[in-house]
Amino acid sequence: MFMQEPMLEVQNVTMKFGSLIANEDVSFSVHKGEIVSLIGPNGAGKTTLFNCITGFYRPYAGRIYFQGRDITGRPPHEITAMGLTRTFQIVKPLKEMTVKENVLTGAFLRASSRKEAEKIAEEVLEMTSLSGKKDMPAGSLTIADKKRLEIARALATGPKMVMLDEAMAGLNQTEIKEAMELCLNLKNRGITLLIVEHIMEAIMPISDRVVVLNAGKKIADASPEEVTSNEEVIKAYLGERYHAKSKKSEHGV
Amino acid sequence: MNVKNFRIDTLYGILIVILLLPFMNSNINFRHVMVIFLIFAGLGEAWNIITGFAGQTSFGHAAFFGIGAYTSTILFYKFGISPWIGMLAGAVLATVISVIVSYPCFRLKGHYFAIATLAVAEIIKQLFISWDYVEGATGISIPIVEESVTSMQFHSSKIPYFLIAYVLFLITTMTARYIENNKMGFYLKAIRESHEAAEALGIDTTRYKLYAMMVSAALTATFGTLYAQYILYIDPFMVFTLEVSMKIVLLSVLGGLGNIYGPIIGAAILIPLSEYTRVYLGGTGKGIDLMIFGALIIFVACFEPNGILGLLKKKRSRRRGDVYARADA
């Protein structure tokens, strides 16, 4: 049977640092238009896997395909140019530049002139609600806005797929709500998302599928509902915390 | 929009004043200082592209300056080729050498890159000192010929030298300005701020750093040719020396890094200081300029790491703050 080719396909990726195995034989795929979340306890190897996919690390073994093309070990800028880009867990604003200049830098990837880049930047600033702060130095933004700027800059490169590395960590409830809406908004615009996140309440409602890593290995790959009731996942990680929280909220606490 | 217009006007204003100055004062020393000022302001602008914009500190720009000086001089001295062609050849050669040297050096980050550039420049200097074909440590006296534009030699007035220096300075400043306002400038600054973020934005960091270095090296070399034609004598200790590299670094840092006004302000302070102390104190005053300048740099580094420009900016925003404060009261 002919199946639609996945947007991103990770095949048996293993990554080692010396004798430490950060990722072990991890495989999964992301299809066009999906929001897939990558979760796991601290040290499960999520960011390492991100770095392998986006070319910042060269995996020890395994292959990675984006739109059918082998991107294993390709430099990050080439991968971004192909339409797969990322944000960083530890935000990296171009501090000395303004918010708009940050976004403009990303926009130059697909723009042939400064004017065109300006237009893309304006659109992205509007979409991410940063228009009002466009002339502020990026270094002076709040953490929530810096995270938003990470996303804005990534969007300015005109991606087909964006990988968000803990874009919601450190945000308050309202900000998390806004970030969730932004994710759904991107999905509606046809952008595929792969999200690493710790805040379960935020990603469970918006994810189409959840991939769970534990100690470098994939232990589950299913819908949010299935994952939350998966024995192994609960044992490894979600466990009491998520359940306790959801029970609490049922009791209206 | 208004702010932008103001900035463009400021630059044009400065350029016009610089152009008029030597015609308002015919003192020969003053005109000499203006020529040297333009050469070093231009060198600062060229250096600013790789270090101020792209954040790759080069302590070895004397290498490109010397290559520019030696290429035109050798071509004229040995083959009678016009220094104008020599200038182009020097720029091309400096570009090629910058690629060969920087490509491996760009693997080094931060201080290590800076040290590597310093070492490479010293190696090139040693090569020229012991290279017989270019007269080694003795240096070359450029044969004096009748003054003409083609020979780039003028004996009766310093004005032609000034005009050539002005044109080179203008080309360099406008190149820096064009880069700053377009894709390349944004890319270079992104590389300076964060290599990783730049890569994630689709920027081929190595390629753009290389471009910046090539442009910077080519422009630097053209000033080397002019300097040789102006002094009419060169030796490795004069053009390949660390002192040239350091002067370029110091004046740009003093003025303000990563901004096209920085090198102009820095050169306007350092060059008159060093040339006038040399004129009035002669041999006894050697080094006084650098001592004063060193003190200035320490002062700037302690109080305002963004240079004099940073100081001005801060003062302006403080004054604006005062107004608001008063309005509040």
TrEMBL record, chain A:
PROSITE patterns linked: ABC_TRANSPORTER_2
Protein name: Amino acid/amide ABC transporter ATP-binding protein 1 (HAAT family)
SUPFAM superfamilies for this protein: P-loop containing nucleoside triphosphate hydrolases
Signal peptide start and end residues: none
Keyword check for Ribosomal protein: no
PANTHER family assigned to the protein according to its UniProt record, in alphabetical order: CONSERVED COMPONENT OF ABC TRANSPORTER FOR NATURAL AMINO ACIDS-RELATED
Keywords: ATP-binding, Nucleotide-binding, Transport
Domain ABC transporter: 8-240
Gene Ontology MF annotations: ATP binding; ATP hydrolysis activity
UniProt cross-references to InterPro entries, sorted A to Z: AAA+_ATPase, ABC_AA/LPS_Transport, ABC_transporter-like_ATP-bd, BCA_ABC_TP_C, P-loop_NTPase
Keyword Cell membrane appears in the UniProt entry: no
Pfam families assigned to the protein according to its UniProt record, in alphabetical order: ABC_tran, BCA_ABC_TP_C
GO cellular component, as recorded: plasma membrane
UniProtKB/TrEMBL annotation, chain B:
InterPro entries the record matches: ABC_transp_permease, LivM-like
MF-aspect GO terms: branched-chain amino acid transmembrane transporter activity
Membrane topology: Multi-pass membrane protein
Entry annotated with the keyword Secreted: no
One Pfam assignment: BPD_transp_2
Keywords associated with the record: Cell membrane, Membrane, Transmembrane, Transmembrane helix
Any Gene Ontology CC annotation: plasma membrane
Keyword Transmembrane recorded: yes
Domain of life per record: Bacteria
Protein localization: Cell membrane
Annotated transmembrane regions: 7-24, 30-50, 85-106, 161-179, 210-228, 248-271, 291-312
Stated name of the protein: Branched-chain amino acid transport system permease protein
Species annotation: Thermosediminibacter litoriperuensis
